[in-house]
Every structure is written in structure tokens, then in C-alpha cells.
Amino acid sequence: MSLAPRFGIFLDPSVGDPQEPFHLAKIADENGLDLLTIQDHPYQARFYETWTLLTALAISTQRIHVSPNVANLPLRLPAMLAKQAATLDILTGGRVELGLGAGSFWDAIVAYGGSRRPPGEAYAAFEDALHILRGLWDGSARVFNYTGKVYTIKGAHPGPPPAHRIPIWVGATGPKMLRLTGQMADGLLASMSYVPPQRLPQVNALLDEGAAAAGRPLDTVRRGYNVGGVIRSGVGSSGELTSNNAIDGTVDFWVDQLVRLYIEHRQDTFIFWGGGNTAEQIKIFAQAVAPAVKERAAARGQRV
Question: Are the beta carbons of 71 and 101 closer than 8 angstroms?
Fold first, then answer.
């Protein structure tokens, strides 16, 4: 059985009008969306720095949760990520979630001073990071130590602890990382453009395999889906899935697609990356698409 559906936005961090991100965040916050996320590519000259922008937007909003989508681990030490996330969680009254990725675009990472990691090392570093984040957030010990394959923490003094148990989302596509997500994390963040619907049964099977191996209920892990496209005016369910796996169609078409993903493929968190007039698209997604998906899911007897 799927978890209760959640809805959010994928906010573009491109440099431009510095007030625009605040305007869009306010729309998402005031219209009942659950999650505001920002991609993290620090080496992109045309992007604002993600954690700084995320912090500013979190402080300027009232109820929406915030998360990187996903934080670039090779350029962000896990101990410092733990401190940053805990601090912002306290300042926002428990509204931080942490998306984390093992890294890609290695030439750009190296250009910014990071290390190029082969797949095995990237996996080991990520597993270390999960242990370090949870260990430093736990706060039950005065001193935290961890010896990993890539990261080692010796004599660290944890604190302050976060305001709530911060969920960790994982950006992953490979089998080992998906199993690890099922074993240790709280959610998967996949993009429809990279992981099309026909791949979701395989992805879910690997998540379930990891969860079962760790003795966790299968619905412990949320399944987040970054969905791009355009919501068009008009009546009826008219639209298409484009060649790059974006959704292009009316509100009813969007609702049909998301309900199918929720019911048939157990995707329970939909992060919208809209085209066209972004502010208007976010409003339509929040005011029309999200409530209809919740209603349809409830009518189908799902847990909402």
C-alpha cells in the first residue's frame, strides 16, 4: 500500500532576478505544497549556491519543508552537512529534509577541488555519509567516532541536534545504491527524465530488496519522482508523454498520469518542475492537480 501522497516543486536556482525564487517559494508555501527542493550543482556558474538559497527561502516561508535535490556529497563533507541541516531544522521548526547524491559530472567536481571517485569508492563514501549523518544527529553521545572506508570521524562533539528526525532522500539509479537506499534511507528521489515509468518496477524491487534485508517494512521508504512538463488549459484528459518523458497536457491528463504512477508504481511524492509561466504553473499544480490526485487516490481505497 502506498504512503500518503505528497507534492512539491523543483525550483530552478539559475541566476536572475534575486526576488523570483522568493516569489515562487511563497506561492508553493501558501498553496499547501509539502516540499520545496533545489538541485545542487555547485560548479555551475549560472546557478546560485544551493544551501545558501535554500536557507534564505526556508527562513522566508512558514510551513513548507525544504530539501536539496540532491546535495553533491563529493563537494560537501557529511559532518558539515549534518551541522548545516540540523541548524536550519532548528531555525525553521523542523522543516528540513536532506536529499543526497553520490556524485556525477566528475570533471566539474574535480575542477572545484573534489576528488574523482570510481563507482566502488563513491558507493563506500555514500554509505559512510549515511552513518555519519545519523550518528551526529542522534545526539545521545558526547563524542562521536566513526571509521569508514572513505570518511573517518574521530572525537567529534555532536550538536545541536535537529528539531525533528530529518528524512534522508537518496538520488540513485544503480542497483547497489537502490538496495542501500532501501536498507538505510527514508526516500528515493528519481527523475522521470532519467528513470521512465517502465523502469519503476525494477527500481521498486531493488528498494524492497534492501528494505527486506534490513528488516524494514516495505513502505518505510518513500518514492519521490521529479516530474517535468507543462500543465495546459482545456477540459478533458488530453495530452502526451513527450520523448524526454515529460508530461504535457491538461489538468485531467496530469491527474491521470500521477494517479497511475501512485497506484500502479507506488510513487508517492511528486516534485513538479514546470515549463512556461512558472508561477502560474505552480499555482495550477498546487490548486488543481494535487487535490485531485489525493481525491482520486482516496476513492481507489489508498491510504491518504
Answer: yes
What pLDDT does residue 69 have? 98
CA geometry: angle at 138 spanning 176 and 222, to 5°? 40
Show the domains of the chain with their CATH numbers: 6-299 (3.20.20.30)
Calpha distance 160→25 (Å, rounded): 27
The CA distance from 196 to 245, in Å, is 6
- How do strand 6-11 and strand 65-68 relate by DSSP bridges? unpaired
Q: Which residues of 192-228 are buried (b: 16+ CB within 10 A; e: fewer)?
A: beebebeebeebbebbbbbbeeeeeeeebbbbbbbbb
Residues 39 and 101: beta-carbon distance below 8 Å: no
Residues constituting the chain = 304
Q: pLDDT tens, 5-47?
A: 999 999 999 999 999 999 999 999 999 999 999 999 999 999 9
How far, in Å, CA of 209 to CA of 215, rounded?
A: 10
Summarize pLDDT for 203-239 with one digit per residue, the tens: 999 999 999 999 999 999 999 999 999 999 998 999 9
Q: Which amino acid is at 75?
A: L
- Residue 193's contacts (CB-CB under 8 Å, 6 or more residues apart) are 226, 228, 244, 245, 246
pLDDT 10s digits, 280-301: 999 999 999 999 999 998 887 6
